[in-house]
Amino acid sequence: MKVPRVAQALCMTPACVQLGAEYAANLSPNHAQIDPCTNFEELVCGGWNLRHELRPDQGSTGTIDLMSEDNEAKLRKIIEGAYPGESSHSHFSPRNLDTAAVSIDQQNFDMMQTAYNACMDEASIAKLGVAPIITVLDQMSKVFAPPGDYSGLALFVKTVGASSLLSIYVDTDPKDPDVTLIGVMPSTGIGLGSKSYYEDPELVSEYRDAIAQLFAAIHPSSVNTTPVDAAKQAVDVVDFETKIAAIMPELSDLRDVVKSYNPMSLNEIAKLIPQLGIPKIIKALAPANYTPGNIIVGDPAYLSKLSSLISETPRTTIASYFQWKVIQGLETIVIARETMKPYTHLKNKLRGREPDAVSERWRTCLAHVDDGLGWILSRFFIEMYFSARDKDLGNEIIAALKQVYIDKFNKLDWMDAEVKAAAVEKIRTIEQKIGYPSASPNITDPVDLKDYYADINITPTYSDNVLSLTSWALNQTWSDLGKPTDRKEWGMTAPTVNAYYNPSLNEIAFPAGIMQPPIFSGDLPGYINYGSFGSVAGHEISHGFDDSGRQYDSKGRFQDWWTNATLIEYERRSKCFVDEFNNFTVIGSGNRTISVKGQQTLGENIADSAGISASYAAWQESRRKGEGEDENNLLLPGFGFNGNGTTLFKTPEQMFFVAYGNLWCTKSTPGALTSQVLTDVHAPGQIRIKGTVMNSRGFREAFGCKVREPTCELW
User: Fold this and answer.
1) Which of 61, 331, 593, 638 could link 24 by a cystine bridge, Cβ 3.0 to 4.6 Å?
2) What is the pTM of this model?
3) 500-502 and 507-511 as β-strands: parallel, antiparallel, unpaired?
């Protein structure tokens, strides 16, 4: 057996000293008695769980959440301060702009700050009470709705940003990603969040009572709703939603690209579900000169069942349902805590939070600005907290990962030559976006930002701003119809602590927000950057070859490019992941043991295991090339020799996996775990660690585990 190399010196930079102390504190108190091969999550995260308390408004938290909180604190300092005249390192600092550009930059900043301050004006918002929602309901009550035609109501609900019976959206054409088209999917905005919750009588009863109280307090001003009327409305709405839940497809089916790709003409859709008048909705939203071709329908059978359900449901119930969706969708624009109390309690119960918990107002308002004016906020974030050096390091790591994937594919003995060549081509052509957009809009250019948001009018009234930004965003999206796909657009703002792979564009994106300590920094050892950020980057690249992404080619086209022999082997190996994760359990609400859904989480589990394997190989290759071998892979203090702290982890190889484990340290309430298993395509954090290291050959070798073969492996 090859003995892992041992680093004899320690990294004593401030970043290393701080992270070493953090990692050491995160260890389980009895770490010396824990075998990393059998309980690695408890080993590296046991202390983390003891050290971190959940806020009342949190059902779970983890390393990624703490990074988000750190970014939020930075953003709060920016948005509550004066216009920053210059930054310490940015090449596009205001000090490098001409006078006219600086003036526009300050106008953009002022607009963002006005939106934030309007949201923070709790006294004015509370004084209005629920009046802003009543105003919207009054507008909806004037919508013409002839018998059997709910298109006007469905359109109205969509324009105010609330979810409805169907999701009608604009996206790239899976078969021709250079053009945009319209899609129709089952709405994911079902009231309780998961169809499974409608099988719990206690939850359904609480939900019904909460809706009744809101109906009694929030209704069109022309209607005199008594408590008895409100209770009857609530019963009708919840019964209707329960029937919707019963016919909804499973989440695993919705993410199945084959099942959800059903091109249909407008006439065919109108025949499937005539009551919603989808052609009318599309005509109202699309540009005047746009002629729809085929529409992609996610689940035609659901549309047919929904049509039957609507036909047998009283008109008054449908009207009450739309009223409820508006209240539910807009309840965050008001401050009326007593009125909202039962519904707040229910939401918090579902999410595993304390009953009366509400987020701190400044967090709510930051999210409001990020949702509506996120690119202005992004500009000022990256000026302070992202550098050209960061961008270069990110590109370097991703380039190394792409080469590893190419090498892996070329060596696979179960993938035939034709598929190998196509897979390698797909890797080579992946577009990588690092940090922030330089077009659509260019956030380094104040003039471009001003033009981008030119049609928005921000006022001192928070509810008006929410509705205005919602309307603007809807118009922005639908105005893309008939235009070539804009490949420069980003799907996340720069401060976001996340990343994504877009199969239709064959692109990966890593916002500046995730390229931050403690998982990414040029001042940290290579095994930290590769073990944490690199594993995330490898994860996103792997999505191009998971059970969904593998069905798109190098140009982002949904088409079959796998030979039968290779596909059979791929599916056999994928089933291993499904079976493996089906056997993992968590303790959920009511102390019930809940099984993770292996099929629902398959894509993420494949990406986790492939990502860490690729990142480990890329890091090892960087060491073989001698890229900073001595100075860039020194052990952290607290984990080295020389009598300094624990000697549990003795090599950079082991520390690579310690970095990975720390990335996914997570603490959750039983309610939050239940919600995640039912509604999320990601397994809970502790399960992600457990499953991924079980599937890592590198991990088993680094820690000398008895069994070296991974449980499941694709490449």
Assistant:
1) 638
2) 0.95
3) antiparallel
Distance CA 398, CA 562 (A): 25
Closest CA to 107 of 368, 370, 373, 489: 373
Which tens digit of pLDDT belongs to each residue from 26-60? Answer: 999 999 999 999 999 999 999 999 999 999 999 99
Strand 262-264 to 295-297 pairing: antiparallel
Residue 648 is predicted with a pLDDT of: 75
Q: Which residue has the tokens 């529409």?
A: 295
* Sign of torsion over alpha carbons 329, 334, 339, 343: positive
74: its two tokens: 């930075």
Beta strands at 176-186 and 295-297: parallel, antiparallel or unpaired: parallel
Q: Please write down the HEC assignment for all residues of 628-646.
A: CCCCCCCECCCECCCCCEC
Domain with CATH 1.10.1380.10 in the chain: 130-333
Residue 646, exposed/middle/buried by CB under 10 A (0-12, 13-18, 19+)? middle
Do 515 and 389 meet the contact criterion of CB atoms below 8 Å apart?
no
At 123-179, the pLDDT tens digits run 999 999 999 999 999 999 999 888 899 999 999 999 999 999 999 999 999 999 999
* Mean per-residue pLDDT over the chain, rounded: 94
Region 358-385: what's the mean pLDDT?
Answer: 97
> Which of 2.40.30.10, 1.10.1380.10, 2.40.128.110, 2.30.180.10 would CATH assign to domain 130-333?
1.10.1380.10
With left for phi above 0 and alpha for psi between -120 and 50, is residue 361 left, alpha or beta?
alpha
DSSP letter for 551, please.
G
